[in-house]
Amino acid sequence: MRRLARPLVAGALLLAASVAQAQPHPLKVDLKIDLPVLALTGASALGLALPQLAPSKCRLCVADDFDQDARSALRWKDPAIARHASDVLVSGIMPLGAASALALAAYGEGGSPRTFMEDGIVVAEAVTIATTFNGLAKDTFARRRPAAGDLSMPGSRNKSFYSGHTSLAFSLATATATVATMRGYRSAPWIWAAGMVLATGVGYLRVAGDAHWLTDVAVGAVAGGGVGFAVPWVFHRANRGGGVELVPAPGGLALHFP
């Protein structure tokens, strides 16, 4: 009986040690650099959104048959409902969900308030950079919206390409999920799944709301998602060695994934 108990106790100690040592993986965050970058890109994103700077005339004024057919197939009878729903998703539900998911993951897996703060800075940085790129594209291409004559938003009739709501949604969802993956949070797959579903819903609602052409939404998803992944992965990934290490643990050795 004692011979059987010893391996069981040793295994339990190894498991407990590995759980106790589990911590969120580090991110490379330097507040002296990242906070000014966040402030600068946030200010530029807000500035580019000013109606006074919007193009007064369209450069891309006519859509092709593909976009016209997609508009006819996906537009709702009351497009305003879809537009309002997309506003609620991208401005309320998604940011609140992203913050809640990262907070729960950080505090539930041995993180600290600084862990959550760093996560938030990296995600916000990705979103403001993606929004800045989007603003530049809108003013450069000056594409006329599908329902430009019906939309009452000032300065937005010629800012259809590419979809800002979609870019924002995908940059937020992808950056949040990428940070969760880099941290090693167990909830990362769920964050990916939920984020992609909600972001795709935003894109669909922009077409259903007659605010964008389908190609606006497709490019917005690719551009926003690309920035949302690249900013955390390229600029904030800490240098960690690969492979598996054997480290001392009570009762023997344990596997450690650096």
Automatic annotation (TrEMBL):
Transmembrane annotation, as ranges: 88-107, 189-207, 213-235
One Pfam assignment: PAP2
Signal peptide location: 1-22
Alphabetic keyword roster: Membrane, Signal, Transmembrane, Transmembrane helix
Domain Phosphatidic acid phosphatase type 2/haloperoxidase: 121-232
SUPFAM superfamilies: Acid phosphatase/Vanadium-dependent haloperoxidase
Name this polypeptide is given: Phosphatidic acid phosphatase type 2/haloperoxidase domain-containing protein
Organism: Anaeromyxobacter oryzae
